[in-house]
């Protein structure tokens, strides 16, 4: 065998190994599906995705009377996020925009490293992870660096619900006012939608998840490029898990004055509903940009004192 023949065979062998390595790497690409929303069915969706093969975090937040089947979110993520919010004088229920300059700070870089380490502790080398932590909605730019550090492919699934159901749910759980609940709904939806525009994402509704979860999951999977092969055993488990009777706030939507805040919340809800029905993203973005500009103007106008419900 000549030297040239050996070289050709060696080159061919290297190419073959490289192709196989690339295929193997592709198969092992870490996909992270983040569930986004504001007390809008995120636990139900995350729990469903976990039953269908997604990896849930090891350090799960415990169940509570308001989430008797579990939150399906990592306790340590929530604790870190609370520290971040506190560092800028904020809390999870704050309706103000998170200061964008913070994401470029040295402190932000430290928290990125902490969250990356916590992610690996919770999910290990799982190739399909389910992340759900509502505080993320306001600080998603921080997570861009986390996903980059993990060399992960992030995809996002929003789940939306009637705004007054969200507000009523928060009131039942925390004793907060309906106004506070609507403000929370608007801020989380607007900021999370804007922060994910360059990412692969989809939108679903809580009502359709409860009424026809197989169709909802198929729709989300097609939009996100994820194939869900649902076995009879998995289907039965999801049927048992998703109990519409648990959706107490959906039975009696409370009365609320139809003023500016009411109109704002339902305008956001209408845009999300259109997106979950396969509507135009371009039209929705334009409308949501208008609403976000108006909402941020309210933040300046009412920085020290939010007016009474009837004023709006």
Descriptive account of the structure:
There is one protein chain. This protein has 312 residues and is an alpha/beta fold. The protein has a single domain (28-311), classed as Rossmann fold (3-Layer(aba) Sandwich), CATH 3.40.50. Helix content is 55%, strand content 9%. The chain has helices at residues 3-27, 42-51, 75-87, 106-123, 140-150, 163-174, 178-195, 206-211, 213-224, 232-241, 260-276, 281-301; strands spanning 30-36, 128-132, 152-160, 200-205. The protein has a four-stranded parallel beta sheet with strand order 2-1-3-4.
Compile the SSE list and pairings.
Elements: H1 3-27, E1 30-36, H2 42-51, H3 75-87, H4 106-123, E2 128-132, H5 140-150, E3 152-160, H6 163-174, H7 178-195, E4 200-205, H8 206-211, H9 213-224, H10 232-241, H11 260-276, H12 281-301
Parallel strand pairs: 1-2, 1-3, 3-4
TL;DR?
By secondary structure, the protein is α/β, with parallel strands linked by helices. It is 55% helix and 9% strand.
